[in-house]
Amino acid sequence: MLNNWSIWEKTTASIRALNAAKHPPTGGWPDFLLQRHPSPLDAENYISGRACDHYRRFEQDFDIARSLGHNAHRFSVEWSRIEPEEGHFDEEEIEHYREVISALRERGLEPFMTLWHFTLPLWLDRRGGWMYRKTPYFFARFAARAAEAFGGNVIFFITLNEPEVYAQNAYLRGIWPPAKKNPISAIWATRHFIEGHKLAYARIKERRPQAQVGIAKNNTFFEGRFAGIFKYLRNDYFLNHIKDTQDFTGINYYSHNRIRGFRMNQNDNKEVSDVGWEVYPKGLYYVLKDAAKYGKPIYILENGIADARDAYRARFIRDHLTEVANAMAEGVDVRGYFHWSLMDNMELEKGFWPRFGLVEIDYKTQRRIIRQSAWEYKDIIDKSGK
Ligand code: BGC
């Protein structure tokens, strides 16, 4: 697969491995991460390659999801595979994803299809990616094609995954491709994301009126001085702009951000994940209560923890689901929860070392190893009777 990330990661892998050695996290890299393959210090860690090879092993993976009691599955279609050249839609790739969808349906897993999860075809990247003024139009055309091709068997479409996080990491922090820091670019990209979503929404609904369309929005729980400003910019701005063009509110929740004085991220950090994010279940309750203002059904599309030793994951799931139940008891219309993620996979700029999976992947052999927390999650699912 050739897209803007696969090119970028090859040119930056060695330098990122060196940086990981030069700037380890506070306290140094723990042994349990260095002993795994690939470790944060290997260049190989930063190159996706065949990753967990889900592209070929999806049937086996969906068998696992079913054995773990899941009844829905969130996945992406890769734009660069489906439209490798401008306006040329690859029928073989479309067929591949049709097979993926059938495999889900055969196992009683409701497909939730994401159309854009951070990668772009090269022909569009060359023109400036989300900075290019016609990208919203191209994205909507791709969405229309996806609705035609898959909409007979897919109801739930997620147009964009975390557009605001992408704008921030690509154009403000410069850690994701195109890694060009410029605040004006971040603003333009955000405007194009909003326009792209709205156009895609209209085109999907035109073709498939029964489709349920939304985005996956990363909402953080902010506390402290100026929390309101950050909440508005980070959580509300995008959703306020698209509130009339979504059928559900899709929320990704990971952690919280306490602002003390003028400093961000001053969390107590009593318990943190392998990537240093504070475990803060209560924040999910607040984020859900707030998202209820849009008056749409809510789906939690991501919530998970990087925990290679599987030390915290079971409790993480239990405590977050308790907060979901608390919000629901107060009338919040939550319809679904997707734990992120089914399997260990390539974790963006960090590469392979963060382990978010309910299922561990041995990257040398591609063996799937179900973690204990996945069975504990299954118990909760079984008891809930859904
Ligand atoms: C992204 C996922 C990622 C997760 C954990 C979200 O921002 O949508 O791709 O794995 O965060 O970092």
Mean pLDDT across every amino acid position: 97
Shape: globular
Sequence stretches where pLDDT stays below 50 over 5 or more residues = none
For the termini, the CA-CA separation is 37 Å
Q: Using DSSP, what is the number of strands?
A: 11
Q: What Rg do the Cα atoms give?
A: 20 Å
Strand order of the largest sheet: 1-2-3-4-6-8-9
Beta strand %: 5-15%
The level of helicity is: 40-55%
Instruction: List the bound ligands.
Output: beta-D-glucopyranose
Oligomeric state as shown: single chain
Main sheet makeup: 7 strands, parallel
- The structure class reads alpha/beta
Count helical runs. 13
What is the chain-wise order of helices and strands? HHHEHHEHHEHHEEHEEHEHEEEH
Task: List its traits.
single chain; 386 residues; alpha/beta; seven-stranded parallel beta sheet; two-stranded parallel sheet; 11 strands; 44% helix; globular; binds beta-D-glucopyranose
Can you summarize this structure?
With 386 residues, the protein is of the alpha/beta class. The protein has helices at 4-22, 31-34, 54-67, 79-82, 91-106, 122-125, 135-150, 163-172, 183-207, 227-242, 282-291, 313-329, 372-384; strands spanning 72-76, 110-116, 156-161, 212-218, 221-224, 249-252, 256-259, 298-302, 334-337, 359-362, 367-370.
